[in-house]
Amino acid sequence: MTLDLQSSETQSSDVKYLPGADLEEADLSGKALQGVNLTGAQLMGADLKHTKLTGASLEGANLLGCQLIKADLRATLMGANLMQADLTEADLRGANLRGANLMRSRLTRATLAGSFLSGANLMGCNLQGADLRGADLRGANLSSANLHGANLMEADLQGAIVSEANLEEANLTGANLAGANLAGANLLCADVENANLSGANLAGACLTGTGLENKMSKGE
Amino acid sequence: MLEGSILYQLKAAHQSGQGSQRSLNFGVYYKNTLVALCHALEDCILTCSSEPLVITAFQRGKWYLEEADRYAELAERSRQVVIMAAPDSGFGEHPTSQRQNVELVSLNVDDPVAQEWHLMILAPTYSAMVLCQELSDADYGKQGFPTVDLERKFYGFWTFEANLVQETMELAIAHLRSYNPTLADTLTDHIQAIISTPIEQRDPLEAIVSRVVDYLQESHMIITPSHHTFEQPQILDSNLLSNEVQAFLRMAQLTDQADVLNPNAAAEVATLVEAMGQFLDLPVWQLNRLKLASLLHRLAPLQSSTSMLTSSSFGRYPEEPSIDAPYCSLVPGAQVLRTMPQLRAIATIITHLSEQWDGSGQPGGLAGDEIPLESRMLGLVAAFQQQVADQSAKSEGTLSMAECLAIALAQCHKEQSQRWDPKLVETLTLLVSGLQQGLSLSVSLPKISAGLWLLDSHDEALISRS
């Protein structure tokens, strides 16, 4: 049986197992593809706007430059390539993104609460207003990322690289930043109440309006 | 933050661990936003039903001179106006400066307060404050000092809270005592007179908030992309938008603070309703909308939504919430939200909070699934949370939290199918049993200055009816 994934009739019940499928530039927007196995699939430039991929396996898939606006990606994306993908307002709650490459992707207002991003590459990512409550970002690379107004309450950023990132008005209440590299980061008016900053590198960081600036200059 | 500045002193007094004081969160404001915000808060003096004390800091005399004509009008309606600024030529000579109830304080150039932008208004019936400090050259970082004046950046906060305004005014008075001790004494007397004035009612906050939103909206016009003078139109735009949302959130904050027995209602309801939405597997955009509606739901007290129309005049819920249906005007708190097009969906949710499952409710007399899902959820959770707070207050600590939850839940069960959607009562029951078995939800108010992120993007303005 040949399967036309792009046909309007195709739903998740028809496609359960498609590892390594070649779906380059396919239009899968709005499809319900829950639980589908797309491990290692080629989805470069595919249109996945509003696509439901709850519980799908996209481990190691190539999603370079994909349109994933408002997609439901509560899925396994370990080691996936999401470079320059558009994930605006995507739902990534609890998603497994360990070691994924999200370099220069757009995650504006995306929901990443409770997601696993340890070791992920988020360099130059746009995470403005993203919800990262309780996310695991240990050792992730967020250098030069834009986290303006992002919610990082209780997030774990132990040993993460956050240098030159924009954290203006971000909420870092209760976040763990132990050993994180925040050199040159902009924390203007960020909330840092109960945040753990032990061993964090704050060289050249802007701490104005956080209540930390005067403590730091006095070496407290 | 400059040591010795008023903002610094206030922040220090509110640093966590300093007594029972709530810690202060600061936001970022562009000069463009501050101008509109201050004009709105100042113009409210013109309609204020009592005479305020006004203390301002203008950085430089030249900024005051730009506003001096307006300040003549404001002084007309005020008990006393104090202008703090580093003097520029013409500062003291302007006719406004000569008025009997206007006092100038010439700040030394090295006074940290000369880097601050303050507007403090305290009257028996109206209070508002903007408290900001300009970024230092170093804070601007790589981009450097902006070339356009309206893009200059400040940080601090603004509020309607009378106790905070009073506290800050006292700090300002202590500061200007070294310049003018007689004035400091006079101002202290003014504050005493204001706080001891008996009042029947504060000026309606709806009108004040509408004005703030109006003025901020007008400022969007001047930063349209056709104006190439602005380097970062989007950033300026979202700064304005963010403050429009803040105006509502700060108004809701006052409602909570005024309720001694249930001061955390908004935050607790938002947390519960979000958990319930997750049980129901609602999409994120709907969860965000529910959260914002929860934070604002107390703007429209259910008991005050009286209907003059019979329920049969409209049994249908309109497909397009952007059409202002006539019944909306019956809920003034929800109506004020409509000043902001981005909040229309929220206004609709709040308008229908007092509907009942069996159709006997107000204002639309909607029944069953005709009532927007968000209104059904929020109505139930808000009533439940209020019950829990009531039980807890009534028992004076004799009942455990689990017992309070059980009593409140029993009440909801009693009203299911009549007042509440039975499916949702079931979901609430699940949630409560989770809580009784140790499920913990962290209740925290979102950062008000970042409230913008809770707004929907435009393509999903419709409310779910499922």
**What average pLDDT do the residues of chain B reach?**
86
H-E order of chain A:
H
**Count the strands of chain B?**
7
Helix tally of chain B?
Answer: 15
Distance between the termini of chain A: 70 Å
Strand content of chain A: under 5%
Low-pLDDT ranges of chain B: 302-329, 458-466
**Mean pLDDT over all positions of chain A:** 90
Largest sheet of chain B: 7 strands, mixed
Radius of gyration of chain A: 19 Å
Regarding quaternary structure, what we see is: heterodimer
Q: Classify the beta-strand content of chain B into a percent band.
A: 5-15%
Sum up the structure in keywords.
heterodimer; A: 220 residues; little secondary structure; 2% helix; B: alpha/beta; seven-stranded mixed sheet; 15 helices; 7 strands; 10% strand; disordered C terminus
What does this structure look like?
- The complex is a heterodimer of chains A (220) and B (466).
- Chain A is elongated, with a radius of gyration of 19 Å.
- Chain A has one helix at residues 213-217.
- Chain A is built from 1 helix and no strands.
- With 220 residues, chain A is mostly loops.
- The mean pLDDT of chain A is 90.
- Chain B is an alpha/beta fold and 466 residues long.
- Chain B contains 15 helices and 7 strands.
- In chain B, strands 1-7-6-5-2-3-4 form a 7-stranded mixed sheet, with helices on both faces.
- The interface between A and B is medium-sized, with 30 and 30 residues.
What is the strand and helix layout of this fold?
The complex is a heterodimer of chains A (220) and B (466).
Chain A: H1 213-217
Chain B: H1 6-13, E1 27-30, H2 31-46, E2 53-60, H3 61-76, E3 80-86, H4 95-98, E4 102-106, E5 116-122, E6 127-134, E7 153-159, H5 162-176, H6 181-195, H7 205-221, H8 233-258, H9 265-279, H10 284-296, H11 332-337, H12 344-351, H13 373-395, H14 401-414, H15 422-436
Parallel strand pairs in B: 2-3, 3-4
Antiparallel strand pairs in B: 1-7, 2-5, 5-6, 6-7
